Amino acid sequence: MSVKIQNISLKYLANPNGKAHIDYILKDLNLEIKQGEFTCLLGPSGCGKSSLLGLVAGFVKLTHGEVLVNDKKVVRPDISRTLVFQEYALFPWLNVIENVAFGLRYQFHDYEQRYLTASRYLKMVGLIDHARDSISQLSGGMKQRVALARALAVKPDLLLMDEPFGALDDKTRTDMQKLLINIWMELKPMVLFVTHSIDEALVLADRVIVMDKDKQTGIGSIKADIKINSQRPRALSELGEYRNQVVDVLYGSSACVGNSFDAVI
Amino acid sequence: MLTSLTNRITAAQVTNPENFLKHRYLHRFVFFTLLILFWQFVTSLGIYPKYLLPSPFDVFETLVWGFSKADYAMVILQSLRRVLLGYVLAVFVGVFAGLGIARYKALDNTLGASLTALQSIPSVAWVPLALLWFGISEAAALFIVVLEAFIPCALGVRTGVLTIPKEIVRAAQCLGSRHVDLYVRVIFPAIIPQLVSSLRLSWAFAWRALIAGELFITGLGIGQTLELGRSLADMSQVLSMILIVAILGFLTDNVFFRAVEKKVNSIWGL
Which position has the higher pLDDT, A258 or B23? Predict the structure, then answer.
């Protein structure tokens, strides 16, 4: 199993002052993700990382090139690639377990089987006691656990995560990172994780793909592909060397930056 | 001074909601008692003849007579039946029109734009047309009700669909939901809070249109009875019917729809 992103370009109809001019967000970009790999797309806002994720998911139409998942061309969103969003995107009219079972409807005809599968994933994210709760009763962290269980329950080939922990407080965020890594080590799906936090990328990923956009053309491209060969669970203090590498790529060797790109402006 | 007043009200509300409710009912009771007393006072002055301004007691008497001896109960039931029939039709048309408008840009540019224009036409304006097309029959009233009531529903569904968070639809799509399934399992449930407020508005429109329509048609109904009161110069009957319209409107809107809205909003986390 693998994901191949081949020579893709994405045009973007920018229309800031009523004057339509066509611009590229991404141009001739290549990337391959191997079986069981946890890949982070790291970069500042507007570098095209979320657009890239949208392309892989199948929401955004490519201008050129193709995305292959297990050698099958991506044409529309489907159950082999599920998404976890920053804003959870849960269905408020369904309770917790019904949310998790949403996609299972297309895989199992049997209600019992759907229920059992959903329960298993709820147990995995530690929310089995909340199976019958309504979504509006949950905290942000709990909502994101439900979203994670919902995305994993259908056994996707590729799990896409678009700044999933961006709306959470620091402690919850750290807890969620640990939970995600534990689940990932158990199930080993391919993960494509978008973040703008350097530390988050370093703690989670096998590979950190650093992206940035060109100042003149605004085209986003891959600046570096850094492999993190460190045992999990990781402590940030051991990752200083990798961190310097990322900072070097983005700001040059003399730069001094905080945790995330938000901190530097 | 205004601030201190608002502070007091909010404080009462926060510390003791029951107390606040009691106040609300007390206020209403006092207000309506004073209103009726004032009405009684004006009539007792004898400036206006009884057939122009009956006393509250006359109206009450007419209501008692109407429900016990005459057919007021049947009148109300017939009007309710008629409005419900028109309402159901209107909602049916409105929901599908709204979904269509939200789905196809061309429909939105044409039909969607005309709906706003159509909404500005008061229901009475359709009466001559309806009477010529359908005669002085129930169909004429139904036509007016449907025409009035489907518009807020269609516009509400349109807004509802267009304001569904993009992520909700995307989440469903990547979990495998498509086409009709996407509409049934995601888009429709997602717009329910918006739909309920539209249904409430549609109901108010339907109710107004019905009374307007009934004034001109034959058969049993509140509007007809109202009009009969006019031709017999029986102002008590006219006022009784107006009271009934107001009370039914209040009960459906403030009691029924408000309760549904509250329930829905709590589930949807709004």
Answer: B23
ipTM of the modeled complex:
0.89
Domain residues of chain B, as ranges?
Answer: 2-47, 59-267
pTM of the model: 0.86
Q: Contacts of residue A85 in chain B, CB cutoff 8 Å?
A: 167, 170-171
Q: Show the 3-state SS of B130-170.
A: HHHHHCCCHHHHHHHHHHHHHHHHHHHHHHHHHCCCHHHHH
C-alpha B149/C-alpha A219 separation (Å) is: 51
Which of B167, B174, B183, B265 has the most A C-beta neighbours within 10 Å, making it the best mutation to test the interface with A?
A: B174
Write out the two tokens for A93.
């009219």
Q: Which residues of B touch A134 (CB under 8 A)?
A: 267, 269
Residues B84-116 have pLDDT tens digits of 999 999 999 999 999 999 999 999 999 999 999
Q: What does CATH list as the number for B59-267?
A: 1.10.3720.10
- Write down the mean pLDDT value for chain B: 91
Q: Tell me if chain A has a CB within 8 Å of the CB of B259.
A: no
Chain A residue with CA closest to B167: the answer is A89
Q: Which residues contact B160 (CB under 8 A, 6 or more apart)?
A: B98, B102, B190, B191, B193, B194, B195, B198
Q: CA A178 → CA A61, B61, B74, distances in Å? A: 34, 76, 69
Residue A263 confidence (pLDDT): 42
- Cβ separation B174–A58 shorter than 8 A: yes
**Chain centre distance of CA B240:** 19
Buried b (16+ CB within 10 A) or exposed e, A156-177: bbbbbbbbbbbbbeeebbebbb
A15-26 pLDDT, tens per residue? 555 555 557 889
